[in-house]
Amino acid sequence: xxxxxxxxxxxxxxxxxxxxxxxxxxxxxxxxxxxxxxxxxxxxxxxxxxxxxxxxxxxxxxxxxxxxxxxxxxxxxxxxxxxxxxxxxxxxxxxxxxxxxxxxxxxxxxxxxxxxxxxxxxxxxxxxxxxxxxxxxxxxxxxxxxxxxxxxxxxxxxxxxxxxxxxxxxxxxxxxxxxxxxxxxxxxxxxxxxxxxxxxxxxxxxxxxxxxxxxxxxxxxxxxxxxxxxxxxxxxxxxxxxxxxxxxxxxxxxxxxxxxxxxxxxxxxxxxxxxxxxxxxxxxxxxxxxxxxxxxx
Length: 297
What we know:
There is one protein chain. The protein has one domain (12-296). Helices cover 76% and strands 0% of the residues. It has twelve helices and no strands. The protein has helices at residues 11-38, 44-66, 77-100, 103-110, 113-124, 131-148, 157-179, 185-204, 218-241, 244-251, 254-266, 272-296. Helix 2 (44-66) crosses helix 9, helix 3 packs antiparallel against helix 7 (157-179) and helix 5 (113-124) packs across helix 6. The longest helix has 28 residues, at 11-38. The two termini are 14 Å apart. Mean pLDDT is 87; it is low at 1-7.
C-alpha cells in the first residue's frame, strides 16, 4: 500500500535537495554568528540597514546578469510594504534576541513561524483552518511553553522578542505567498531590500546618529547580507526539488548545529527543555506538512 506522498524517484535529486537544505542551515547559522559579532558595535536597525544595502547590491547585479531585471514591477505596492514591515520587525527582533538569550532558544522559537502561518492564513489568505492545522497549532503552542517556560524567574525580553520575531516572519511568509501569485522572486527581493534600506535609515537615524561600521565589522555585515539571501535561495531550491516532508527534517538540523556553535563559541549550556520543546514544535510542523502532502498526492 502506498503512503500517498509523491517522492522523487531519482536518489540523486533527493541528495541535491538535501545539500541545498544544508546550505540553508549553514547560511542561517552563519547569519546568527555574524549578527552577534557586530551587535557590540551596531544596533539592530543599523545591522538591518547595512544588511539590506548589501542585499540590494547583490539583487541588482544578479538581476542584470540573469536578465530578470525586466520582471521587477511596481504592482502591489501595499502588499510589498506590509510584507517588508513584517519582515523588518521580525528580523530586528531576531537580531536583538540572538544577543541576549542562547542561540538554540532563539532558533527553537523561530520554528513556530509556520504554526503562526496556519493560524493567520484564514484571516489573510482565506484558507480553511482544518482540524489537523488546529491540532498542529495547539501542539506547537505547547512546544513554545516548554521552550520559554514562562514564569517570573525565567521570563526575559529576549524570549519575548524571539517569539514575536516568529510572528513577524509568519506575516512576511503570508504576504510573500500572496505576492508570488503575480510577482517574480527577483521582484520580491528587490522591493524587500529597497524598502528595508529606507526603514533602516529612518529607524537607525531617529536619534540623529548612524554608526559607520569599522573595518572589523564590515566583513561580518557582508556575510549577513549574503547569508540572508542565500538561505532563502537554498530553501526555495530545495523545495523545488523534493517534497517538504523530506526537506523539513534537514532544516531541523539548524537547532543542534546552532546549539553546538553556542556551546563551543559562546559557552552556552545546552538546555534539555529547549531541545524537547523544539522537538515538539518540529513535530507539530511535520504533522501538518505530512497531512497536507497526503491530501495533495
